[in-house]
Amino acid sequence: MLSTSKSGHDLDPLDELLKPPADETEEDRLIRLAQEAEARRISLQIDESIKAERQQQKKKSVVRLLLLGQSESGKSTTLRHFQRLYTPSAFREERILWRSVIQLNIVRSVRTILDALTNVRLPLVDSGGEDSDDGSPHIPQELDLLKMRLTPLRHIEALLIAKLIPPSEDEATSLIGNSSVSLFQSHRSRSTERSSRNPEVFVRPGATWKGALAKSSHRDGRPMSLDDARMTTRDEAQEVLHSCSDDIISLWNDKFVREVLRRRKIRLEELPGFFLNDLDRVTALDFIPSDDDVLRARLKTVGVSEYRCEMEAAAGREQGTEWRIVDVGGSRSQPVLATWVPFFDDVDSIIFLAPISGFDQVLAEDRSVNRLEDSVLLWKAVCSNRLLANVDLVLFLNKCDILDAKLTSGIRLSRYVRSYGDRPNDLETASKYFRSKFSAIHREYSPLPRKFYGFCTSVTDTTTTAGILASVRDMVVRRHLKQSKLL
């Protein structure tokens, strides 16, 4: 006869644990059964929630947008506009981190001025300079005294670079070394070194530099919020800039300095990261950057980074849409198209930024290349690329505000762009001319017919840019939904 009893190793210890107590009353039994039923209900609810979330993830619409253009064309500023408009909470919390960038922008502007004053050999008329034996003016004595009083900025520049660039990155040492050695030196011949003695600080795009800066900004190592910043605004760099603000203002407003900058064709006010006209405000001890300050700040990025966000301000079909905006930073030393091509796959739209104000400028990376000519060549390459035959291209003819200032000041566009001819030298005519030229390239070089989207922009202008980006967003979403057969 077979035994029906279980051997010791066949016993399930959980069965023993889950068995009701031997002395369980009827009331206890009812309570236990109700608790078990509630536990099963909660478990099923969690399972259904996880299942629904997974299905929602599968249905989530992902829009991919690529930002292209030469260095200093406005790509990073355009990305910041997207963040300000459609992820405003995160943008506001990060504003305090840009204070260090603005501090560095101010120091670098001062450095540019002092570099220009090094061994001046210009016959400046009515400039106040004292003539030397060979008839060339020396720097006025009061400017020499200003330079001595501004030497603390040397330490501040190295300090800020160290905060912005992680020590593990190769470029940190070389940049800090270059800046600490050569900043504010005044007695060496620099005529052949001007383009290289002020190397620009750059970071890898993405959140890495922000994370490092946030931790370094708080004494206990945790990220600094805007509330923290209002309680603790007196960092060392801000204190030094505040103490030097009067001298920096005197330097910037000096007639001799302005004449030297004019003769050397250095137009600081046209460069990104220019704050010398706002020194009283941005050097105040309680300074907190505004939205406009963040958009105007300059921090060069190299490399490629993808920013992912769900737009907080979206509505209707756009709710739940995940945007992936790829910012392609870089410089002329990198093979431009080779850097861009890997990101052409599965992109919905491209915003190409062409800074048309650069018609009279050359690339910082290659002084033999005109900036406008470089933008035209890059635009041709993008339009003709067969990988992008079905991708909408949105053209931003950027920095129209600077173009307007140049034309108004009397700089003739036709002197640099011969095909412009004898057209009126004003912004409206010039912008229409450039738009027609870029449109013709788009039409001629596109592998397949497609609509041309072109805008004249000043991406540091929050009002007009907000409207343009809203139009671009709507266009991109409509196309994406149509391609996804959701519209």
TrEMBL record:
Residues binding Mg(2+), per UniProt: T301
Residue stretches of biased makeup (Basic and acidic residues): 7-25
GO CC entries: cytoplasm; heterotrimeric G-protein complex
Signal peptide: none
Gene3D superfamilies referenced in this protein's UniProt entry, alphabetically: P-loop containing nucleotide triphosphate hydrolases
Region feature (Disordered): 1-25
Keywords: GTP-binding, Magnesium, Metal-binding, Nucleotide-binding, Transducer
PROSITE patterns assigned to the protein according to its UniProt record, in alphabetical order: G_ALPHA
Listed InterPro entries: Gprotein_alpha_su, GproteinA_insert, P-loop_NTPase
Positions with a binding annotation for GTP: L295, R296, A297, R298, L299, K300, T301, N398, K399, C400, D401
A GO term for molecular function: GTP binding
A single BP term in Gene Ontology: adenylate cyclase-modulating G protein-coupled receptor signaling pathway
Protein name: Guanine nucleotide-binding protein alpha-4 subunit
Species name: Paxillus involutus ATCC 200175
Top-level taxonomy: Eukaryota, Fungi, Dikarya, Basidiomycota, Agaricomycotina
